[in-house]
Write a structure and sequence with these properties.
41 strands; Jelly Rolls; single chain; mainly beta; 6-stranded mixed beta sheet; 572 residues; elongated
Length: 572
């Protein structure tokens, strides 16, 4: 097999028997134009012995990457929601940049990106598979030639499948600063992948932190699990009481009694389906205080870090349970062996405690991420209300799904909630309602809501959520921005290849003028043609006489400066 250019002369490259009797050529183009492939059949030196036959020829064109090294890093936008862009590490080589990543395999097929941290210092970096199904990435600060590893900034498999994902929600980065991202395929793998850097704009406090704790309303059972320790250190030597290990995959709760009486609960690690499991959960309770104070000050009023065995005669007669239970006199219980049942004295609410706030931390000592059930019992029906937080909104986000913008939010608890109204704006100032959904009214578990905006603005859209109570009072969420781009039309130049001119169909009417712009393979503008407004299907002819032989891209840009379509053609 031999390669020639269209001018004849010596061969560009040739090969015989690369693998067995098969031939393969790898050639780097140094010009634009036509390349001819000559396939010969070997005849053993006897020309008269030539006979016909068939051969399969496969041609693969790979565009050299520009971000093989840090100096060529591609700029990534930081958007309000994940807007994935497709990239490739095909033909990537080992950059050899120091320091080396702290995770995954050697980055011998790495490519580079960079982006600027928003004012919040918070970003998420998400990657998903294309033809590359196992990737890794490392985050750096500094500049090319003087890079520093970002602590906790390396990931291998935290995203979908075996793809990487970095959540810098807690580990805040320096605002308005450029960071570099090194991306590679595990074990030297190459292929295409999607990548986005986004900042939702609204990050609710995690329930693993005191300020984000769940509100307990009524004597319901709470099922929960976490594999996270939160963003804030709430416990220390001055307030942790018997929880000598501080915070270990814990969850915070808040509650406020509206009547006198006693409060008890059963805390039991389960397998998610209610069956008890061997796991060490502990807890501590602070209060009562006139208002929620985070972190809590002083020692807890109830505390237990016991790991109770299955001792007959104690509540439930089941091992590993703990909580508040009648018949127990101790206020704090430590691990003391077989005669420690894990339960401590119930909380008695006096008249002076009504309306005050308690805080509780449930701690997973085993760091297992295991589910637990928290079941409450009160001597007075309806003893707890939701005065701490009527509607506990966990999340509100927007994302582009196909041709619509999907709005979604989650509530952990609701009390006397009427409905939610979705409001939209194109300037983040003038908001108009676009729909509403009924709320649950009263709930004690997680509820997911979603709403689709089928007609978003082409550009940046702004949304907010209005939560309305039964009494007419309401609150707004933070404003969430998101960019939306309508689907691009595919331009089909004719003829292709072309010599003197191409014709582009314009299928729809346009109230304003457009600009057809032609780019060469280096991204340079070589031709721009203004197209006046038209009515109905139409077309435009663009002359090509003075263009060099090669491959070109054409884009159609409307008078609103939005990209309306693109296509490719070859000039011969």
């Amino acid at each position: 097999m031999t390669l020639y250019n269209s001018s004849g002369g010596a061969s560009l490259a040739f090969n015989d028997d690369f693998c067995g009797l098969r031939s393969q050529i790898t050639w780097t183009a140094t010009f634009t134009g036509t390349v001819h492939v000559l396939v010969d059949r070997w005849t053993g030196g006897n020309a008269c012995a030539h006979t016909g036959g068939c051969a399969t020829v496969s041609i693969t064109c790979n565009v050299p990457i520009t971000n093989d090294d840090c100096s060529g890093a591609i700029d990534l936008p930081v958007t309000a929601s994940c807007v994935p862009e497709n990239f490739s590490n095909l033909l990537a080589t080992a950059s050899g940049t120091s320091p080396a990543p702290t995770c995954s395999s050697a980055p011998n097929t790495d490519v580079w990106f960079r982006f600027t941290i928003p004012a919040s210092g918070v970003v998420r970096i998400l990657s998903s598979s294309g033809s590359l199904s196992d990737g890794a990435m490392q985050l750096y600060s500094g500049t090319c030639g003087s890079l520093s590893l970002v602590t906790g900034g390396c990931d291998d498999d935290s995203g979908p499948g075996y793809m990487p994902y970095l959540d810098r929600r807690c580990a805040v980065l320096t605002p308005n600063t450029t960071y570099y991202l090194r991306y590679w395929g595990y074990g030297g793998a190459t292929g295409t992948f999607d990548l986005c850097v986004y900042w939702p704009g609204y990050f609710p406090e995690p329930v693993e932190d005191c300020t984000g704790g769940r509100t307990i309303c009524g004597s319901h059972s709470v099922s929960n699990a976490t594999d996270y320790t939160g963003c804030t250190v709430d416990l220390n030597g001055s307030n942790r009481g018997c929880l000598a290990s501080n915070e270990r995959q814990g969850t915070w709760f808040h509650f406020s009694p509206n009547n006198t009486g006693t409060m008890e609960f059963l805390l039991q690690p389960t397998n998610g389906a209610g069956s008890p499991v061997d796991m060490d959960y502990d807890f501590a309770i602070w209060g009562p205080t006139t208002s929620l104070s985070c972190p809590p000050s002083g020692s807890p009023i109830r505390c237990s870090w016991a790991y109770p065995p299955n001792v007959p005669g104690y509540p439930g007669n089941v091992a590993y349970r703990t909580g508040l239970a009648s018949g127990n006199d101790d206020l704090s219980e430590t691990d003391g062996g077989a005669f420690v049942n894990g339960f401590v004295q119930p909380i008695t609410v006096a008249a002076t405690d009504v309306g005050k706030v308690y805080a509780m931390y449930v701690d997973n000592f085993d760091i297992s991420g295991q589910t637990f059930d928290l079941t409450w019992t009160f001597s007075t029906p309806g003893m707890l209300d939701c005065t701490v937080l009527p509607v506990e909104l966990v999340d509100f986000e927007a994302k582009v799904v196909d041709e619509v913008i999907e709005l979604s939010w989650i509530t952990q608890t609701e009390s006397n909630s009427s409905h939610f109204t979705l409001e939209h704006s194109v300037d983040a100032t003038d908001f108009k309602p676009i729909g509403s959904l009924s709320a649950a009214g009263n709930s004690f578990g997680t509820i997911d809501y979603s709403f689709d905006d089928p007609d978003p603005n082409n550009g940046v859209n702004y949304y907010r959520l209005k939560q309305v109570d039964l009494d007419g009072t309401f609150t707004y969420t933070d404003i969430v921005p998101i960019e939306f781009k309508k689907s691009l039309a595919t331009l089909v130049p004719r003829p292709n290849p072309a010599s003197s001119s191409i014709q582009i169909d314009l299928p729809e009417s346009s109230a304003g003028s457009c600009m057809a712009t032609i780019y060469d393979t280096g991204g340079r503008i070589v031709r721009s043609v203004s197209i006046p407004a038209w009515i109905g299907p139409s077309f435009v002819n663009i002359p090509l006489n003075d263009l060099e032989v090669g491959s070109y891209m054409i884009q159609l840009i409307g008078n609103d400066q939005m990209l309306a379509g693109r296509g490719r053609f070859i000039k011969e």
